[in-house]
Amino acid sequence: METTEAQLMSRAAWLYYLGGLNQEETSVRLGLTRARVNKLLQQARETGLVSISIDRRDIGLMEVEEVIAKTFGLDQCLCTPALGFDAVASLPPVLAEFPRRAVGSVAVSLLRDTLVAKPDCVVGTGWGRTLDQLTRQIAGLKAPRARFVSLMGSLTANSAFNPFEVVQSLARMTGGEGFFLPVPFIADSPADREILMSQRTVSKVLHMARHPDLAIISVGELTEDSLLRQSGMISAAELTALHEAGAVGDTNGIFFDANGLPVDHPLNQRTLAVGFESLRASHVMLLSAGLEKVEATLGLLRNGLVKSLVVDGDAALKIAAAL
Length: 323
Description:
By secondary structure, the chain is an alpha/beta fold. It folds into two domains: 5-46, Orthogonal Bundle (Arc Repressor Mutant, subunit A); 62-321, 3-Layer(aba) Sandwich (Rossmann fold). It is built from 14 helices and ten strands. Helix 2 packs across helix 3, helix 5 packs across helix 6 and helix 13 (294-303) crosses helix 14. The chain is globular and about 65 Å long. The mean pLDDT is 89.
């Protein structure tokens, strides 16, 4: 029988990571070239088949973690290793994904701890590239009693990072249940928003989303390079208007200012998402990856909404320097 790509990937990963063979020995065992084995191992990591965890105790940045946690009254602040870059433009393209992958990896360990302590946990999730990385690194975590629910409208134009995909990936990988809000990310008008939110199928999921044990959110910057703009979910004119209203970032489609307070802008009246006041009753874990998110991250931290912060090392150093 012909071996499928998925089977080859699994066998290569098993021989290399668990069998203790090096790449040359793995290639001989499978009858493949070393380059082919290298690619299979890379795919195994990217698809989440292989999840790698690193003992953080000797990594450093503990002083920075303590400063940030104490300043904002956090239960915990965890920083990934710093790469030594202090500006977005100085980060080489080959390392562009590193902050998100690193933050996603640490967040997985925290999620694992939460689900072990409370197997029937309700986990609310946002959207974005960092949360996507979390779902890719959750292999091996089984939590059949857990429930994952989107905190915002799940029908977006971008299928790669939208809330539906995040929830479904988490449910599929853990064996838990997934629930999503079957409504758009942003309604056409405030009146449409009210109609959509009042639908029975929406209200049932919304009740669960307003009372999660753990809410995992990420933060977005308001620039032309942001995911919101790149996916066409807000226009250039709306971006300019948001800046004029004082917005510095968004989370779950809620646009906020430098103090983490929702700004007075029509988009905030059309977003279908769980509001800040509802989230405040839950344990909110903020994932922040990238120097471009420092200003927005500071805003959410000043709000007092966040209980746990997972942030990449370079951004953490910037945040600490601003205190």
